[in-house]
Amino acid sequence: MAEPDDSTAATVAAARRGDAGALDRLFRRFAPVVHGVLLGRVPRFDADDLTQDVFETALRRLPELREDAAFPGWIVSIARRAAIDRHRRAGPVVEGEDALERVGSGDEAGVRLDAARALEAIRALPEAYREMLMLRLVEGLSGPEISQRTGLTPGSVRVNLHRGMTMLREALSMATQGESA
């Protein structure tokens, strides 16, 4: 695990005391992480809604958090459970339906279909790689930001990103070969 971030712990402590500014800072800092975790598991429209729900749950359950520095991992676990709960309530989802609903015409349609295929390929990856790639590619976080916000060591983040990208390239290459055959 990465070293605890004192600023995160201090912000969580302030949030526990009811500091609205601290709550806002936590949301701005961790919303991209939560959203990225959710995007790896649910369609975008659900991820957007669930991100807000995750923070509402975290606020309500903040007194249960034992160590303020554990907030990054704790909120990610809340996000994972929220996605699982959404799947249980919603039933099966047709792969890519979220992206395909938004497909336009011409070049834009091709780009959106490519993005939908890439998202489907990422969602098929093992969880550790899927989360890292969603945070890096979709949410735009750097390796050090991912490390700091997930609690993983920088080395673990680099390895997971590298392995995930390798698996993603292979999956997309196989999909492209399958289309041209």
TrEMBL record:
A molecular function (GO) term: sigma factor activity
The residues covered by the RNA polymerase sigma factor 70 region 4 type domain are: 118-167
Sorted alphabetically, the Gene Ontology BP terms of this entry are: DNA-templated transcription initiation
Q: Which residues belong to any copy of the RNA polymerase sigma-70 region domain?
A: 26-90
Key words of the record:
Sigma factor, Transcription, Transcription regulation
Q: Which Pfam families match?
A: Sigma70_r2, Sigma70_r4_2
Q: Which InterPro entries match?
A: RNA_pol_sigma-70-like, RNA_pol_sigma-70_dom, RNA_pol_sigma70_r2, RNA_pol_sigma70_r4_t2, RNA_pol_sigma_r2, RNA_pol_sigma_r3/r4-like, WH-like_DNA-bd_sf
Superkingdom assignment: Bacteria
Q: Which family does it belong to?
A: Belongs to the sigma-70 factor family. ECF subfamily.
Checking NCBIfam families in the record gives: sigma70-ECF
What name does the UniProt record give this protein? Sigma-70 family RNA polymerase sigma factor
